Amino acid sequence: MNSKYSSYQTGTGNTNSTTSSGDDGYERDTQLKWKPNATFRGVLDAVHAGDNQWGQSIGVKFTDGKLVDGVLMERLDRDTNEPDGTIKLFAWENMPVILDESLSADDAPDVFTEEIVGKTYRYQLVGARVEGDEGAGIESDPAEPIDFGDFIVWEDGGKKPSSTAKVLAQMLTTPGRDVIVDKNDINNWLDVQNVELREDLIGREVDVFKVVKQGDKHKFHSPVVIDVKTGKQVMIGNGGGSSSAAEGGQQSASRSPAPEESPASATPESDTSGAPSSEIPEPVSDFVEFCRDFGLTDESQILENLNDMAEEADNSLTPEMVEEVGTDAIVEAIVN
C-alpha cells in the first residue's frame, strides 16, 4: 500500500468523517465505484442531489478522469458479457498480486471476479497504475496517469448517510456544513434544493481517495481530496463557498472540522463486525428481524436465506447492501 494512504489514516491531516449508488436521472453518465487505498483524478464539474425510494444521495460529476493509483475495471453484464456502464477502482491490495517493490502495472489481471453474497461479478481490465512512493523507493508505472473519460460518483448510506457521503457533501457544496439537514435520516439528510458545487472548486483538478479509519466500535471510510495544482487538501468550508486548506496537503489542527458525531456512531462502510441492526441498511435490518422472529439460529440456513433474498431482482435487499455490512456482522446480529 502506498504510504500516502497511511499518512491520512491518523492525525490532523484528515477530515473527521466509496457505498456508491446511482440515481435514475443520471444513468447516461459512467458510474465509478471505488475502494479505499486507490486514487483517481478528475476535474470537478458539478454536484447533484439524488432522491429515490432508498433515500437521498450526493453525486459528484468529474470530467477528464485519470487513474492515478490502483486497478480500474469495467463491470460486465452477466447475460451479455458486455460492459454495463459501471467501472470500479480497486486497490492493489484487492488484486491477486504480490505487494512488493517489483509490483508493476503489468501485474494487473485482464479479468477479475468478485463474489458478493453468492453472486459473482465479472470485470475486465481498463487500466492499471502503480503510483510512485519516494519513501519506499518505488517509481510510478506507467509514468503518467491513465485517461479514462468523464464519470460520476454517487454516495449515500444505509439508514443514515455514510461518512463519505456527509463529508463530500459538506466539503464540495456551497452551503458547507449547512447542507446537512438530518445526519440520522437517509431520506432527509440533505438540503437538496441547495446542492451546488462551490464556485471556487469549479474546474479544479483534484486527486481523490479514501482511507479506512478505526472508530470506537467499527471501521469507517474517510475521503481525501487534494488539489493537484497546489498540492493542498480541500477542506470543509464554513458555507458560502469558502475554502480551507493547509500547506503541503495537511490540515492544520485549528481548522479541523469538528466531527458531527463520534466515529462509533457514524454509518459503517466497511468492516462492521458487531454493528447493531440500527446502523445497517433498512432491508438488511428487516432481514435480521425476520430471522429473529422465526427463531433462525443456524448459520448455514441464515446464509442460504440471505443469498436467496439478495438474488431476487424485485427484492429491496441487494448484494451491495450485504457487502457493505458483511455476512459475519449480519449473522452475529441475528444469533446474539
UniProtKB/TrEMBL annotation:
Biased composition (Low complexity): 1-23, 243-270
Domain of life: Archaea
Region spans: Disordered: 1-29, 236-283
Name of the protein in question: Uncharacterized protein
Taxonomic source organism: Natronorubrum sulfidifaciens JCM 14089
